[in-house]
Amino acid sequence: MKSLIHIFYMNKSLQAFNTFGIEASAGQLIEINSVAALQAVLPDIKTPFYVLGGGSNILLLNDIKGTVLKMSIPGIKIERTFKHAVYLSAGAGVNWHKLVLFAVENNLGGLENLSLIPGTVGASPMQNIGAYGVEIKDVFHRLEAVEIATGKLKIFRRKELAFGYRNSIFKNKLKGKYIITKVWFKLSKPPHRLRLAYGAIKTVLKNAGINQPTIRDISDAVIKIRSEKLPDPREIGNAGSFFKNPVVDAGLFAALHRQYPEIPHYPQADGTVKLPAGWLIEQCGWKGKRIGDTGTHVRQALVLVNYGTASGAEIHALAVKIRESVRQKFKITLEMEVNIWH
User: Is residue 180 part of a domain?
Assistant: First the structure.
């Protein structure tokens, strides 16, 4: 039944709600369109439940017998404007790429490198999404979240979130304790500080004859790169990067570099070294390999795909095999970035 604040479904198929396109159902699905709706339904949920955003970072292994809360809180708003900065807010259910396009169209800088990342605003600070030299922590101002146990609304500032690589306090100390409902970002007004550290962006701009890029040019370049490199979930089921890029200590990297001089690497400020998981997987022979209706994508080994009717269990089994082969070859255990629902 539809109301002003939420929509309730029984035995709802989740196939359209996950970018892998896995056929599974939820015992009940409640679409949340406001903070009031979330606060109203939480006391009545007696079984364990899942919080669903854009479904771009989950793998369903089975039907969900309990409750799924689909966060659909809308709204993008310019909250405050200053001489050099603008504070922009967005509801947890807002499509991430639509937020980026809104910022670009209004000449607000900071989000352009994060163009075309799938998912919703609510998930962005939880896993500190990032791409092409930018992470959410670089533009994050604050967020509001509802405490599950009490239903109370709480504000979290940047310093409280303990941001790390694809990590935040909501994936550790506060995991399962809060549901994010709204996020604020601090964006720049012209002249913008452009992030061009990643060579792929420079190459696309150079090929287009662009010598003085705008934030729109950078956004367009990132869209072009991602579109050519990564499969569209509407065409081939996937959840983007399935594994995190591992960060190893200097000793292990030195040993690997001696054995594989060509290994791509990115030194970190603390002396550790980040390695591209896609390269490691490709060296193990997985790029483009297909097993039944699942496999790795032909252009990016880091992306596991569903070619049609693969089950979540089949995709997970493939991920386990890939992780074990990387561990045996490189002595590195890859961490899954995708959340497993079962």
Answer: yes
pTM above 0.85, yes or no: yes
Q: Band of the pLDDT at 27, cuts 50, 70, 90?
A: very high
In which domain, by residue range, is 182 found?
76-188
Q: 296: Cβ–Cβ under 8 A, 6 or more apart, which residues?
A: 281, 286, 287, 288, 289, 302, 303, 304, 305, 318, 322
Residue positions annotated with a catalytic role:
166, 241, 337
- Per residue in 245-259, pLDDT (tens digit) is 999 999 999 999 999
Q: Which residues pair with 183 in a beta bridge?
A: 90, 143
> CA angle, 57 as apex, 55 and 62 as ends, to 5°?
70
- Is residue 105 domain-resident? yes
Answer whether residue 194 is part of any domain. no
Mean pLDDT of the residues in the chain: 94
Are the C-beta atoms of 312 and 293 separated by less than 8 Å? no
Residues 66 and 107 in one domain: no
Does the pLDDT of residue 87 top 50, yes or no?
yes
